[in-house]
Amino acid sequence: SRLDGELTSLCHGVSRIDGEHVYFTAHSNPQRPYDLHLCRVPLGGGAMQQLTQEDGKHTAIFSPDGSCFIDTHSAPARAPVIGLRRKDGSVLNVQLQAADISRLQAIGYTPPEEFCVKAADGKTDLWGVMYKPHDFDPKKKYAVIEYIYGGPQLAIAEHSFIVHFSMGALAQRLAQLGCITVTLDARGTPERSKAFHDACHGTFCGTLTDDHAGAIRQLAERHPFIDGSRVGITGASWGGYSGFRCMAEHPEDYKAAVSQAPGYDPYASVLYECYLGLPHDNPAGYRKADALALASRLKGEFMLACGTSDHATWTDAIKMSEALIRAGKVHEFVVLPEQYHGYDSVHDDYLWGKQAAFFRKHLNF
Fold first, then answer.
1. Residues 336 and 347 sit within 8 Å (Cβ to Cβ)
2. What one-character-per-residue DSSP string does 187-202 give?
3. Phi and psi of 240, rounded to 5°?
4. Residue 7 pLDDT > 90, yes or no?
């Protein structure tokens, strides 16, 4: 039915069901596909109605009787605002409360900037967020570091104001070193259409590196403050895989990479089966997904980092180091004793210091 079709393609989560409507959050604006709005549809069938309007992401908490809801919304460059609306979306109070970021602004806060570029196919829109240092000067030239994940199960670009730990928060932290940082959700990631997500099916790395490298090139052409000759990339877990692969396949774009807690061997993890099927059914897809086979193609500066207790990726990190040694590729390997897939504060601070020094040295900032 039309109702089923809309919910299948748009619904993010059901918020409330009353006697007349189903209320749910959805990516309902095709011009801004990652915005999240509260919507509703009649239980008896009919058109979907979007109840919130402001760009960005909205969350809704309904009153006990369901007659109204608290609407909290924000965007990357707009701090959270809390308003009150009737259940039909009409405004009762446009602002009950607004976040106070005056202390942040007092230390030179530069707000993030959303952007849209084209995928490698020249027609598909890709969305991301750019972070700038607190003392950003548009007349200067800045090195760029992409914070990547690239895994087909997560969209990581933060299209709301950062108020908690996230990959966007890590990218923003990196920018304060004195560079531009970028996060991007390319083809093969969720929260868009099925066709957009299906780019990873059977060969999830097929469009990955072309989309990301192409996006960086477009941003360098668009913004005179971006130095396209000084580009680095970093990521953890599947981001460790994606960052290495981007650098190996596009050495003309990426000059330095840090690969944290990386998984490189598709035969070693059940995670790949969701997207590639079984190895005996898709041998070509598995061979192409094997990042260890790309060791000889690596150019530029490369750092591996992994915890010794990370049962999921320690073996892959060792395999990659051995492959690089046999290929004659000089690299750094940061060992984090007794650390798992995430690190405690002491080891995390240590790795951040190593990463900062690595990028400052090799990207010259």
1. yes
2. TT-SSS-HHHHGGGSS
3. -65, -40
4. no
What is the C-alpha end-to-end distance of the chain, expressed in Å? 56
Torsion sign, CA atoms 323, 326, 329, 331: positive
Three-state DSSP at 59 gives strand
pLDDT digit string, tens, across residues 273-304: 999 999 999 999 999 999 999 999 999 999 99
Taking only the tens place, the pLDDT of each residue in 18-55 is 989 999 999 999 999 999 999 999 999 999 999 999 99
Strands 125-131 and 113-118: antiparallel
Do 253 and 231 form a contact (C-beta atoms < 8 A)? yes
| Nearest alpha carbon to residue 342 among 315, 305, 317 | 305
Q: How many whole angstroms from its chain centre is CA 222?
A: 21
% pLDDT > 90, the chain: 90
Task: Say if CB 264 and CB 320 are below 8 A apart.
Answer: yes
Q: How far apart are CA 23 and CA 144, in angstroms?
A: 41
Question: To the nearest 10°, the Cα dihedral for 84, 88, 90, 93?
Answer: -10
Task: Name 50's bridge partners.
Answer: 39
Beta strand ranges found along the chain (DSSP E): 11-17, 21-26, 37-42, 49-50, 57-62, 68-75, 78-86, 91-98, 113-118, 125-131, 142-147, 180-185, 226-236, 256-260, 301-307, 332-336
Question: How far is residue 58's CA from residue 75's CA, in Å, rounded to a whole number?
Answer: 9
SS3 content of the chain, % helix, strand, coil (to 5): 30, 30, 40
Residue count of the chain: 365
Nearby residues of 128 by Cβ (< 8 Å), 6 or more positions away: 114, 115, 116, 117, 157, 182, 183, 184, 185, 215
> CB under 8 Å to 1, separation ≥6 — which residues?
45
Q: Quick one: CA torsion of 99, 12, 239, 361, rounded to 10 degrees? A: -20
CB atoms within 10 A of CB 9: 13
The H-assigned helical ranges of 199-253 are: 208-222, 238-249
Q: Are 207 and 187 in contact (CB under 8 A)?
A: yes
- Angle between helix axes 238-249 and 208-222 (nearest 10 degrees) is 70
